[in-house]
UniProtKB/TrEMBL annotation:
Entry annotated with the keyword Hydrolase: yes
Protein name (Swiss-Prot/TrEMBL): Histidinol-phosphatase
Alphabetized InterPro entries for the sequence: HAD-like_SerB (IPR050582), HAD-like_sf (IPR036412), HAD_hydro_SerB1 (IPR006385), HAD_sf (IPR023214)
Signal sequence residues: none
Enzyme class, first EC level, given as a word: hydrolase
Spans traversing the lipid bilayer: none
SUPFAM superfamilies: HAD-like
Catalytic activity, reaction form: L-histidinol phosphate + H2O = L-histidinol + phosphate
Organism taxonomic ancestry: Bacteria, Pseudomonadati, Pseudomonadota, Betaproteobacteria, Burkholderiales
UniProt entry keywords in alphabetical sequence: Hydrolase, Magnesium, Metal-binding
Gene3D superfamilies attached to this UniProt entry: HAD superfamily/HAD-like, SG protein - dephosphorylation function
Keyword Metal-binding: yes
Recorded family membership: Belongs to the HAD-like hydrolase superfamily. SerB family.
Sample GO molecular function, one term: metal ion binding
Length: 232
């Protein structure tokens, strides 16, 4: 067995104290790039509420979120995303999260972000964290445009396990080839992947995941607590 370790990171509310998918849609709405801004914000809020209740499917989220990509040219989307990174994402990339990632990278661990948010939104964020691999929901791209549909298996709930296993298989690896495997997540939606690694970590966990972690003896990591203390 190899002594190499695997470190997987959820993104939203795990490495970032926000939801990048929600914030991207909000950014497009408030800058007048999402059709009817008020309707877009209402739909965005509704999807977030349903996600938090565990009632949202990847396909339901894609109808709105990937529809925002399909409505615009890749040229415009790329320019807007640069502004989004500067205005919203980089200020939210706090040292505590960057240090956690750097600890695993310096140790030589194989690192990847595993997120339900689509690759268009998250690929620049993964690069900014220095994480070389990204497993995310792939938006379908045909004839120079996004179609608004999902390509392949969404990286969501059990789909994250399938996608991680497929990614490792493409590298002639399995989870069992690692001496230790870590997954950091805030959400109960990620219990399927937390269940299969040797070191599940409930990072900034939702109340339901915190309860599960306490029941199962999983490590709980509150990355952003000190930030709240500093503000009080």
């Amino acid at each position: 067995m190899t002594t190499r370790r695997l470190a997987l990171f959820d993104l939203d509310h795990t490495l970032l104290p926000l939801d990048s998918d929600y914030q991207w849609a909000d950014f497009l709405a408030r800058t007048g790039r999402a059709g009817d801004p008020e309707q877009a914000r209402r739909l965005n809020d509704e999807l977030m509420e349903r996600y938090n209740r565990g009632e949202l499917t990847a396909e339901q989220a894609a109808e709105f979120m990937l529809g925002l990509l399909a409505a615009h040219s890749p040229f415009d989307l790329a320019a807007w995303h640069e502004a989004f990174m500067a205005e919203v994402i980089r200020p939210a990339m706090h040292a505590c999260a960057r240090d956690l990632v750097d600890e695993h990278l310096r140790a030589g661990d194989l690192c990847a972000i595993v997120t339900a948010t689509n690759t268009f939104v998250t690929a620049p964020i993964a690069r900014a964290f220095g994480i070389p691999h990204l497993i995310a929901t792939d938006p379908e791209y045909r004839n120079g445009r996004y179609t608004g549909r999902i390509e392949g298996t969404p990286s969501f709930r059990e789909g994250k396990v399938l996608r991680v296993n497929a990614w490792l298989a493409s590298r002639q690896l399995t989870l069992g080839d690692f001496s230790e495997s870590y997954f950091y997540s805030d959400s109960s939606n990620d219990i399927p992947l937390l269940d299969v690694v040797s070191h599940p970590v409930a990072a900034n966990p939702s109340p339901s995941l915190r309860a599960t972690a306490q029941e199962r003896g999983w490590r709980v990591l509150d990355l952003f607590d000190h930030m709240e203390d500093a503000k009080s």
